[in-house]
Amino acid sequence: MSTGTTDGPPAGTTQGGARDAAALRRLAVATLEANWEHDHTVPSRTLYPHQWSWDSAFIAVGWSHVRPDRAWRELASLFRAQWVDGRVPHIVFNPALRVGSYFPGPEFWDSALAEGAPAAATSGLIQPPVHAPAAWLAYRRFPSAAGRAALCRLYPRLVAQQRYLATCRDVGGGGLACVVHPWESGLDNSPAWDAPMAAVPADVAVMRAYRRHDTAHADAAHRPTDLDYARYVAIVASYRERRYRDEDLATRHPFLVECPLFNAAMGAAEHALARIAPLAGADPGPHRERAARVTEALVRRLYDPTTGTFHPRDLRTDRLVPARTVLGLAPLILPDLPVRQVSALVTEACSARFGLAARMDRPLPSHDRTAPDFEPLRYWRGPSWMNINWLVRRGLLRHGRPDLAAGLRDSMIELVARSGCHEYFHPDTGAGLGSPAFGWTAALLLDVLADDPAG
């Protein structure tokens, strides 16, 4: 396959051998260029033809290395669809695409009926708030007067996003935000959601009214089941019928979970905003204080000293979910995570469950590979993902483990060198899975190839 295509490993690389960084960089840039859509980047031309929230944040980091102007256009286009209450929707729909070309599409969400929704058609859900760290990184990667102006314009919108999470979504009252749907976590089909999802009533027959878009472009054996999707639909229907209002979530909503990754991202966002604030003429102090409170709440509510890792808390039962997934490693991104928890998470990451090492023989999985429900092919139930690897790597660098970060970086590069810019990868063989020519895989490859560890 020739260099410059957006599918498969580039010429100039060898499977398991030396990697041609220039060829990989060309592949990544070509992938982003092919996915560019006038003011944003689609994750995939086939499977995800609209704009996704946390995808755009990761993609902006990649664009900052080659087209900084597009990094700022990417974030600006997403935040133009921000709701009045501060939520940043997890999907912004492209009105040029025909009705029915994607499920669940704009007609399913019906966001126009919600108070405070933007003019653009969007979903009513959110995704992990990785946008402030991404904006700060985009500026650091290519500081300029134009970049600073764009960052300052974005700052009040980022603040509004955090305010929404800290108020409307603190359903548990313990200082953490809750997700109201597995899709909000970003790890849609993780085993972490099995127990909370089991309590959601759903009729598989409801799926007959819809045509799933994902299984038309990916192997159904790799995707969530119809029962999972029926429950996804039921949760959205519950939220949609109340016009996506958050006031009565605690009493009426069927899925309420405090997620370690989501809240680690919220804390990291406050740290990033503390660095952005002086550029925008604002006081960084309140951001630092809020960051400290999030970290304290995360340790108090989601850390289990028995397992030595973080777990989601199901607010319906007020219990920690026992599954040991890569979500538990995400708090490493917090620079103020206490030493005890850092040490425990490094131990967890290096255990047989995840296999992190200075020289890795297998990619980092998204779920405990020793668990009986580990599935190496199914979406988020085992496969390796570039964005999670990237987050964990940054956490390791923050906490003085460049040896392990280097092992993870090499593994990430090797995945693309072997298989191309796929959506996710087999956690044993590294084979590409899901959509080819995937946006955040390309973008984050550019970032690790640049290998600037500071953030």
TrEMBL record:
Pfam families in the cross-refs: MGH1-like_GH
Domain of life: Bacteria
Residue intervals of the Mannosylglycerate hydrolase MGH1-like glycoside hydrolase domain: 48-441
Coiled coil: none
Keyword tags: Glycosidase, Hydrolase
Organism in which the protein naturally occurs: Micromonospora peucetia
Lineage: Bacteria, Bacillati, Actinomycetota, Actinomycetes, Micromonosporales
Chain positions covered by the region annotation Disordered: 1-20
Record protein name field: Mannosylglycerate hydrolase MGH1-like glycoside hydrolase domain-containing protein
SUPFAM superfamilies tied to this protein: Six-hairpin glycosidases
Sequence similarity: Belongs to the glycosyl hydrolase 63 family.
